């Protein structure tokens, strides 16, 4: 059985992430979306909130599991018997950083390989940070996140 991990902060999940989840879920038997539990990053949403949004937007994809992890990604991959890490590449600016991380992960754990999917052009500019920036100025988010996620962002900003 082929298992891949798509790791990230997902603070919150965007349509760009959803595109990568959908496409990579068709390539493997099981795709685990791994939500990094990283207190140093000061996320807008708690890990549970981020996982809840991911569960909602992937509810029609039966081979997608949502889990959280802390520590090294390759340790999480080994625990889950996953030998593939999936990352999206939006532009050349992503490549240098992503290559460095992929090579680091591979030198720590050669049996886990990273595959990159190019982000669909519609989402090539999109990030969770951009979504939060737009939300903070009251802009519309419907082109960038799912309706469920948009509601969660709005209720966060109202608080
Ligand atoms: O969505 P992000 O914030 O770009 O995701 C980054 C992530 C979670 C993939 C990366 O920070 C990560 O894998 N963190 C876990 C610690 C780790 O294994 N780092 C790589 C070796 S330096």
Structural commentary:
By secondary structure, the protein is an alpha/beta fold. The chain is 42% helix and 19% strand. It contains 6 helices and 5 strands; from the N terminus they run βαβαβαβαβαα. It has helices at residues 15-25, 47-57, 73-79, 92-108, 128-136, 147-158; strands at residues 3-8, 30-36, 64-69, 84-89, 113-118. Strand 4, helix 4 and strand 5 form a beta-alpha-beta unit. The chain starts with a strand and ends with a helix. The relative contact order is 0.20. 4'-phosphopantetheine binds next to strand 1 and helix 4.
In short:
The chain is 42% helix and 19% strand.
Main features:
globular, single chain, binds 4'-phosphopantetheine, 6 helices, five-stranded parallel sheet, alpha/beta, 159 residues
Count of distinct strands? 5
Bound molecules: 4'-phosphopantetheine
Q: How do the strands line up in the largest sheet?
A: 3-2-1-4-5
Largest sheet: 5 strands, parallel
Oligomer: single chain
- What is the average of the pLDDT values? 95
Supply the helix-strand structural class.
alpha/beta
Low-confidence stretches: none
Give the amount of beta strand, in percent. 15-25%
Helix content: 40-55%
Secondary-structure element sequence? Answer: EHEHEHEHEHH
């Amino acid at each position: 059985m082929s298992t891949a991990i798509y790791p990230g902060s997902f603070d919150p999940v965007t349509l760009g992430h959803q595109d990568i989840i959908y496409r990579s879920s068709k390539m493997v038997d099981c795709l685990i979306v791994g939500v990094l539990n990283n207190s140093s990053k000061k996320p807008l949403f708690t890990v549970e909130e981020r996982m809840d949004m991911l569960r909602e937007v992937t509810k029609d994809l039966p081979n997608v599991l949502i889990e959280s992890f802390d520590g090294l990604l390759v340790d999480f991959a080994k625990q889950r018997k996953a030998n593939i890490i999936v990352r999206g590449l939006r532009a050349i600016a992503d490549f240098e950083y992503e290559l460095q991380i992929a090579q680091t992960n591979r030198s720590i754990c050669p049996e886990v390989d990273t595959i990159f999917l190019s982000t669909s052009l519609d989402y090539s500019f999109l990030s969770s940070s951009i979504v939060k920036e737009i939300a903070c100025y009251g802009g519309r988010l419907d082109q960038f996140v799912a309706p469920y996620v948009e509601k969660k962002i709005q209720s966060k900003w109202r608080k």
